[in-house]
């Protein structure tokens, strides 16, 4: 095994610091050498993204992240670049001080940052201000520098972590660097992939700095980055009964669209049969639009129980409402103890009447629904999405999906997977209904709750990216994902 085997492992800041200490104390690699390796990796990344760049300006903070920046500037000058540094105060720490002195001794120019300073002309700006060393909002002085950097319009490379982004949680409590690319060192930080961070990191590159596999031995990553996988081909003798029967429950007055999207997504994700339990007024429209959906009028629990006898998986919540009809169906469905995906009003009812689950259950809340389920506000969810999704899974005894940029999946044992796909065009109505149907279909085809949630979230996001690639993000609607979803499930990318 090589260090690249850890490419998809995500670590907390404390874990990365422990790895850094192990490299120095146990493997005997001096901290300054690690700094030199980081600078070399950063220069490779810079040249990869901006091969025509000849002038760079590096904004350096006082700590080791700033030391990385000074050494990058020195290496760039040696490689024929014009490189200048804007320094945020004096350097601190032996390695950072040494890096600054060597840059200055080589003839490098250092500008002390102040509000009136005009940043040097550059083809690329480099953020080497704080990295993982700061997890609170940037000070007013630094925020001014960050805004000034953005105002130049220059491409921006961040070293390790964009300054102002919490590398543990993905939260951005104030002003922050918006990088075009981030090169992160030793181990991938979990916060770079979720919350507000995806809007600040650009393209993330991980560099292990040439460290040996022994560095990671005994370390267990806090989370994992999802991989692009799909289901295996079906056997030639397969029939519809082999692929499960999803019963989608919802569609209160005026919300036929939600339950139709859920049901159609279940069909496109490979369920053998899909039934719909809904209001009678929706039957004509559903049968006309998608005759493969077996739509049934359901007045109350008795009619639903008859349908559930034939179903293997329940998808509960899209358009369900929280009135007497929806509540009665919700109670009946959950009391059945079947494999279940719970979304939308199914989650809002759960927040009103909490209950733990013992069967194969997947909850798919967005941050607002998650806040109601945990009895807090959305700011608390955003402050630490990893803690929130783990608590959802623990409290309700289910696999939990916390939707949003960098969706998270957690199980009751604390395992977390992070989705690296998806785009802003997916912030439109009906996307959650699709996900509910997709996950339900995967459960129906034999996936366990963890597999169905991870695979479903990944396929949903990748389908969104594929749809956006062909037609653009703005104006993307939920049904645009159905054909790309089918392609991905069959191992095709275009």
UniProtKB/TrEMBL annotation:
Q: Tell me where in this chain the YjeF N-terminal domain is found.
A: 16-217
Looking at the keywords, is ATP-binding present?
Answer: yes
- Keyword Signal on entry: no
Q: Where does (6S)-NADPHX bind?
A: 64-68, 131-137, 160, 258, 319, 366, 433
Which cofactors go with this protein?
Answer: K(+); Mg(2+)
Recorded hits in PROSITE patterns, A to Z, give:
YJEF_C_3 (PS51383), YJEF_N (PS51385)
What does the UniProt keyword field contain? ATP-binding, Isomerase, Lyase, Metal-binding, Multifunctional enzyme, NAD, NADP, Nucleotide-binding, Potassium
Q: Which GO terms describe its molecular function?
A: ADP-dependent NAD(P)H-hydrate dehydratase activity; ATP binding; metal ion binding; NAD(P)HX epimerase activity
User: What is catalysed by this protein?
Assistant: (6R)-NADHX = (6S)-NADHX; (6R)-NADPHX = (6S)-NADPHX; (6S)-NADHX + ADP = AMP + phosphate + NADH + H(+); (6S)-NADPHX + ADP = AMP + phosphate + NADPH + H(+)
Q: A Pfam family this protein belongs to?
A: Carb_kinase
Sequence intervals crossing the membrane: none
Q: Which HAMAP family match?
A: NADHX_dehydratase, NADHX_epimerase
> Mind telling me what this protein is named?
Bifunctional NAD(P)H-hydrate repair enzyme
Q: Where is the organism placed in the taxonomic lineage, from the top?
A: Bacteria, Pseudomonadati, Pseudomonadota, Gammaproteobacteria, Lysobacterales
